[in-house]
Amino acid sequence: MRQTTFALAATVTAALICGASCLVQPQEVFSWKEMEFAWPSKEAMDEAVKSGEYIRENNLPLGIDRWKDKLFVTVPRNYRDPPGSTCRHLPASRRNRVFVRKC
Known about the structure:
Layout: H1 2-23, H2 42-51, E1 63-67, E2 70-74, E3 87-91, E4 101-102
Antiparallel strand pairs: 1-2, 2-3, 3-4
């Protein structure tokens, strides 16, 4: 009897929590159509794009975390990616065009 009561209480509690979480709408804080990285110079970036060593579409963020005034963006390392780092950061306070920098 105790196990049945506990199971029923746990089920009701889980249903209430799930129902309440459906009522909360997430808020979009940042969004990007594409990511651009800080390069040593525009010429270096243009040459990497022209030669095929850097392909913008291959840099898809898989994770993001915020610490103080920085957003840390995890991007899988691509063997053709000259910026060559898996962790990049950008200011968390700006919503306009920003350049992602290596950690």
